Model the fold of this input.
Amino acid sequence: MKTKESYHSLCRWTFHAGKGGFTPASMRPLWSSENLDTAAVIELIRKKIAPRLPKHIVLGFEMHYDTEVNELNVAAVSKALLDNRIYLAMITPGAHSHYAYGGIASLDEHERTSACAFGQKTVDMAYYSLQKTWHPQKDLAPTFVLWNGSYGYDLATVGIREMYRHLKESVAELCRYEQKQGGRLSIGIEPKPNEGHPAMLLPTVASALLFWKKLEQEYGISLERKGINKEFGHSEMIGLDHVYDTVEEIDHNAVVHMHINSQGYNDGIILGGPGKFDIDHGVRINGMNIAVAGLMKKAGYRRWKGHDMQVRAYDNEEQGLDRVVRSILSWEACEMAAETVDEKKLLSFLSKRQTAKAEDMIRDAVVQAQKYFDGMYD
Done:
């Protein structure tokens, strides 16, 4: 059984009454914004989720500025984090709630200027209002995530190149601003191919890695604590291999945060996958996730593992809490199973083209992971 501390973070946006649209908007009335504000979510996590987890798990929290944490509620949120022994693991500007025409990449100068200022306010929130909620270990300071929900487009024009140029300039300026405030945050780009626009700048891990290299070459931005918010589901939803993405990210020393969710298509049980919308299932136990867990452990990753997930549209509050617990325990089980894989033996099989025997090893690891999960869940 694991004994070393393991760092998992939960997201404010997981806890809502219902998505609406084609699904009920009030499936979990106790989780409505009127009944459950951000501080109350933190208290709910400590009361209902933390007691169901192994003692070696340390919990963090993730929020958008300014929809989930802002100048009006930050004192209450900070107090809740401190009182409940939960750390700020990630903060991100909720620019997609305000800027619909490209945000920091916008061709509209007024929108671009406003969106850049919004990002700097998010940095200020992390440093000056929430810094006392950071984990005391330096290497567990929060990640500032740039999610590209704002900077997208729906017209194929030469203007896309100008948007990309604006994006480079804006992110470079943000990095300089953060450095002046202390330079302690990690800054991670979260690639995504679509949502909230049909097409996005920085849609893949490879494009985000190249983007950072261009910022280093063209703007002199240090790549220390710069990299990728590793989001499994965003790779899966366009049919990319999140195991290979992991290899690229590790090769560039670029994993600063993780969002360990799933589109679901690779476990043979739940539906989802390429061509589908962002389903955000919690972690699944499968061979691919065990491979990623093994790669990350070997690379020495010891930062936050965020559960960017949505409970199912038909879950009540109790079932929703159970989904979150299951996601955390599933990843723990994948990590434990990865340690049981005899890598030397596996590579020997692969070198001899005995791929069926290698497949047997991975299947055995999946079975072992499920046993680990069952033991922790019971």
User: Anything to note?
Assistant: The two ends are 14 Å apart (CA to CA). The domain at 6-341 is CATH 3.20.20.150 (TIM Barrel).
